[in-house]
Amino acid sequence: MKTLSKHILQILTSIYCALYLAGLISEFISGETNLINIDSLLAILIFLVFLTATIFSWFNLKISGILLQVWNIGIWIFSWFIWEEAGMIMVLAVPALVIGVLMNLKAYKSEVGPKPTNQIYWRFVLRLLIVNYAILYAITIMAGILSEDSLNYSSFPFILFPILAAIFYAGSIVSWFNELVAGILLCLWYVVVVIGSIAYFDFFNSGPWFLFGLTILIQGLFYINNYRTYRSKT
Predict the structure, then answer these.
(1) CA-CA-CA-CA dihedral for 96, 98, 99, 101, to nearest 10
(2) How far is CA 190 from CA 16, 125, 132, 213, in A?
(3) Are 229 and 118 in contact (CB under 8 A)?
(4) 138 with 96: CB under 8 angstroms?
(5) Of 117, 119, 107, which Cα lies nearest the Cα of 68?
(6) What pLDDT, in 10s, does the model give residues 82-124?
(7) Could you write out the DSSP letters of every residue in 217-228?
(8) Element (H, E) at 155
(9) What's the rounded Cα separation, in Å, for the pair 18 and 15?
(10) How far apart are CA 228 and CA 9, in angstroms?
(11) Quick count: other Cβ atoms within 10 Å of Cβ 223?
(12) C-alpha to C-alpha distances, 150 to 33, 142, 143, 153, 174, nearest whole angstrom
């Protein structure tokens, strides 16, 4: 079963890479991508990172997982600061992030001994995910601050954004010490997003927080579930 799950991650990464390459080739054929445009060169560069991760997936899951997470961060940076209207690319990059984290989990399982408990495995995955989310959130905040259409964060309802950031990073920090409190804070974060989106059109229209926020809500629910499942065993 251990070998099977490892091969599944390798196959999924290879399929993802093949589709990625096919999309890149189609853009070359259509003329959307070329070798003289800086945006196109960056697109090729970020693809090479993914290709390297795919190759390493057959030899070293740890390095491959790290590269996939670096690739995902690169996609977010380029999408926010360089590629216009590239929001869908960030959505399509999410599966690669998950695969990368699972690869690092497989590598962690093979490196540590004696065999850790499921609680330790879950803690490893959740911590790796929250670190990634914290980096992506910071990129998003920086993009909003540097944008030409930067919002007035001292006025309502946009003051909710710094409040949300404070709640998220408080939950992220607390998650290393208390999963229950972290879970409550991350769920509270999503509640504020929902209320803000429903009550204020300007807030709802400022970005896909309702959709992207689901990952943070799920993270919070996992923290709460972990606390309830394992508190009697610690």
Answers:
(1) 120
(2) 30, 21, 18, 6
(3) no
(4) no
(5) 107
(6) 776 665 778 788 889 999 999 999 998 888 766 777 888 889 9
(7) HHHHHHHHHHHH
(8) none
(9) 5
(10) 30
(11) 27
(12) 30, 10, 9, 9, 30
Tokens of 179: 């999963």
**Residue 155: left (phi > 0), alpha (psi -120 to 50), or beta?**
beta
Tokens coding 223: 């923290």
Token duo for residue 76: 């977010």
d(CA 82, CA 164): 25
pLDDT tens digits along 40-92? 788 888 999 999 999 999 999 999 999 999 999 999 988 888 776 665 778 78
> What separation in angstroms does the CA of 183 have from each of 40, 127, 210?
41, 12, 18
Q: Is-contact 129 175, C-beta < 8 A?
A: no
Omega into 114 within 30° of 0, i.e. cis?
Answer: yes
